């Protein structure tokens, strides 16, 4: 109706200033959001710098403290070294998770250049290479331990098992060096020395067979030549 049209026109006239004010408020709000987004982008870039600095410090500590030489190269000491390596790898995972989070944040804000953490990849390669060397030594000691645990009377009929072990692990060591996984690695150098010692000693073991030895012969060998305790006898020898 005409009355309704006039009433609507009157109401529309009254809304115009309010719509204009609302538009102004929305524009101001959008400007504020854009300012905050730019501020967050700057903060993200700062966090990337801080993260890279933290990675550099972590890498410096790793290179200064990473496990290399041991006083005793026994299985227990190697196991303790693996505990240390687990700690290093846990810290590395924390850095990787933080780097991934920053990458996702950059993508969320559509930032054209993704963050770079080149030092993280370098130190990860170093940690994994070191862990690989210690893993080889651990596996070797486990196999050697199985032979060491055998009693001599049972083992002496299969003396060549020790030579076979040294030959097999020697090939594995060559393969690792050939693949570039060795370098000047003290762990692999120790493993190589241990294998050389077995290869050098193995030929003499046939003279220790002892099937025709009498008790005094065993005493002369075990206590005299080898300097073992009096409690070590043929029946307890491993």
What does this protein structure show overall?
With 238 residues, the protein is mainly α. It is built from seven helices and no strands. The protein has helices at 2-65, 75-108, 118-148, 152-155, 160-178, 186-205, 215-225. α1 (2-65) packs across α3. The protein is rod-shaped, with a radius of gyration of 36 Å.
Please give the count of helices: 7
Number of strands: 0
Radius of gyration: 36 Å
Average pLDDT taken over every residue = 87
Q: Helices, strands, pairings?
A:
Blueprint (H helix, E strand, L loop, with lengths): L1 H64 L9 H34 L9 H31 L3 H4 L4 H19 L7 H20 L9 H11 L13
Helix pairs in contact: 1-2, 1-3, 2-3, 3-5, 5-6
How would you summarize what this structure contains?
The chain is mainly α.
Identify the notable features of this structure and list them briefly.
mainly alpha; 238 residues
């Amino acid at each position: 109706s005409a009355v309704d049209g006039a009433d609507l026109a009157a109401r529309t006239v009254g809304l115009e200033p309010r719509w204009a004010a609302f538009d102004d408020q929305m524009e101001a709000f959008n400007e504020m959001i854009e300012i905050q987004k730019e501020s967050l982008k700057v903060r993200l870039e700062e966090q990337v710098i801080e993260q890279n600095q933290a990675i550099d410090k972590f890498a410096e500590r790793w290179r200064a403290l990473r496990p290399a030489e041991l006083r005793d190269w026994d299985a227990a000491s190697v196991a303790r070294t693996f505990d240390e390596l687990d700690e290093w790898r846990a810290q590395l995972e924390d850095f990787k998770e933080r780097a991934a989070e920053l990458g996702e944040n950059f993508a969320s804000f559509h930032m054209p250049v993704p963050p770079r953490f080149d030092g993280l990849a370098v130190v990860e390669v170093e940690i994994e290479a070191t862990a690989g060397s210690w893993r080889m030594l651990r596996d070797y000691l486990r196999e050697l331990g199985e032979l060491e645990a055998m009693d001599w009377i049972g083992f002496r009929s299969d003396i060549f098992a020790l030579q076979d072990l040294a030959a097999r692990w020697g090939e594995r060591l060559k393969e690792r060096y050939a693949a570039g996984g060795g370098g000047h690695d003290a762990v692999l150098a120790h493993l190589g020395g241990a294998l050389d010692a077995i290869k050098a000693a193995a030929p003499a073991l046939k003279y220790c067979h002892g099937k025709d030895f009498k008790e005094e012969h065993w005493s002369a060998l075990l206590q005299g030549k080898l300097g073992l305790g009096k409690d070590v006898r043929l029946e307890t020898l491993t």
